[in-house]
Specification:
CATH architecture: 3-Layer(aba) Sandwich
Number of strands: 5
Strand order of the largest sheet: 3-2-1-4-5
CATH topology: Rossmann fold
Shape: globular
Function: Toxic component of a toxin-antitoxin (TA) system. An RNase.
Order of helices and strands: EHHEHHEHHEHE
Organism: Conexibacter woesei (strain DSM 14684 / CCUG 47730 / CIP 108061 / JCM 11494 / NBRC 100937 / ID131577)
Keywords: Hydrolase, Magnesium, Metal-binding, Nuclease, Toxin, Toxin-antitoxin system
Structural class: alpha/beta
Cofactor: Mg(2+)
Distance between the termini: 18 Å
Number of domains: 1
Radius of gyration: 15 Å
Protein name: Ribonuclease VapC
Largest sheet: 5 strands, parallel
Number of helices: 7
CATH class: Alpha Beta
Helix content: 40-55%
Length: 148
């Protein structure tokens, strides 16, 4: 991850995975996250929104997530995204040893990023594996193991 004084990373925009979104308010990354949000570098997609809904405790929390989501451009899950996701899992399976067993939401998020030329901001090792078979850059929010 390349940090600068104006943004969290050196990409024009990223899809922020749920793993990053849930940790973005951590003390060590909060200022950089806010700069990236202000620079409109952070995008979302329906899969991230659904995962965030899943973490909500009640209807009020779901509503708060919906309000927050409106601040981000949403990348669609199109038929081409679905086909790319299927192809990615197929390619990982060819590598053997259960290498294809990655989170299905992560596959869709990575394929959506590829579809629009975005990178993926995350805190989840699956994206490194997916970047081997899809065209996007895997960007860790913080070094693995440094956030809870």
């Amino acid at each position: 991850m390349t940090a600068s004084s104006t943004s969290l990373f050196d990409s024009s925009f990223v899809i922020a995975d749920t793993s990053a979104r849930l940790r973005a308010r951590s003390g060590i990354v909060v200022a950089q996250w806010q700069r990236a949000v202000s620079a409109r570098q952070i995008t979302t997609c329906p899969v991230v929104k659904l995962e965030l809904f899943h973490t909500a405790r009640d209807a009020n929390a779901v509503e708060a997530i919906e309000v927050e989501e409106r601040a981000f451009r949403s990348i669609p899950i199109t038929r081409s995204v679905q086909n790319a996701a299927i192809g990615a899992v197929r390619e990982l399976a060819r590598r053997g040893g259960g290498y294809h067993r990655v989170s299905l939401p992560d596959v869709l998020i990575a394929a959506a990023a590829q579809d629009v030329g975005a990178d993926v901001l995350h805190y989840d090792r699956h994206f490194d594996r997916l970047a081997e078979v899809l065209h996007f850059r895997s960007i860790w929010l913080a070094p693995a193991g440094s956030l809870s």
